[in-house]
Amino acid sequence: MATTSIWKVKNRIDHVIDYVTDTNKTIGLQQVLNYTTNEEKTLQHQYVSCINCMRNNPYQSMMNTKEMFHDKKKIVCFHGYQSFVEGEVTPELAHQIGVELAEKLWGDRFEVVVSTHLNTDNIHNHFVLNATSCIDGKRYCNTKKDLYDLRVVSDDLCRKYGLSVVEEKAYQSKTRQQYHHEKSLENIIKKDINEAIKVSRTKTTFFNQLELEGYEIKSVDKEIGLKHYAHDKVIMLSNLGNEYSLENIINRIIHQQNFSMDKTIYSKKGFDIEPYFRKYERKELNGFQKLYIYYQFKLGILPKSNHTRPKYTKELRQAMKQLDHISNETILLCKNNIETLGQLNQYKTILQAQLSHLESKRLQCRNKIRRSPEGTLKEQLKAESKSYTPEIKRLRKELQCCERIKERSLYLQQFEIETQSRIEKGRSRL
Q: Which CATH class is domain 2-182?
């Protein structure tokens, strides 16, 4: 049995895509450990499929479609949901069903991201559907018929793969019992509010997060109520207890502002990353600096929320060390104010000249050591030779950082060219 729902999303596509493709929800702990040990897979996702859009950047694909058809309407996409009974389906089968559902309903005209979340007792699929058709630019309306078709196709697929299907008359009572696991609706809402508070900095971001979860925000007689997407009943915040009044929710959000950023990676290197992270938040960074701070935000090195990062297991800490070179590259870019590939090449030339000079001096010392007899002079030459080694090692590491940064920049340039080419081809068909 699978329950389904779909709702509109206004103004921002990137937020909902980031939410549904969050690796903390799409993969389990052991998979996270394996996932973080391979740098090339760090920005990829398991149980995430893209239909009619680029897997590595579905947001850009959807925005390109909107630009191509000049669609600037407020409703930018739709966020759908398909939840299965606990223990009835594997992650692989759930994702397969989700992909088939999306292809049947929307695959001929719309761009869709299908993501399977494993972070709850009920394995469930999320769908991000571009409101603008990539074929003809027409809009998806999400009518009552569309909702009915979503339910029917979902049930048909459940029957196809031998899963249970609730008949119409028993639908309401059984879904409440199985989907909520005998918990009250109020407890479910309280849990979602607590999670939304953890990742919010303002009242606005708090309500935005609840909307991403599928809630409708209702205002009744100057009071705030929440309507869960699976229920018709509106629950007022005042009915959830004093802790969940709007005033206390705001106070809890404000209390989190003085959070402690985990700076262990940078503190060991004697570098304060926090000012650059604040500049990134205020959109004051450009070029490579912005790109690398973004990497670390997505990988969890820098905080995605206002609370302190959790303590990691020994295995996970070891896996996180694999990301150390990302931090080194960020330090290099920020310390030397490098924003472009030209600036990077210029800095690399300077490093290479310094390295060649030091290696030459060390080689001269070593040649003198071989020709010198045992005594005070030979010991002085050995000490001088060793004194060059730390700086040589540092320069070599920085040169390696420069090479990695250059490789990433060339990849991004190629990606931008391909994206622009796609836009131009789309315009030429009009």
A: alpha beta
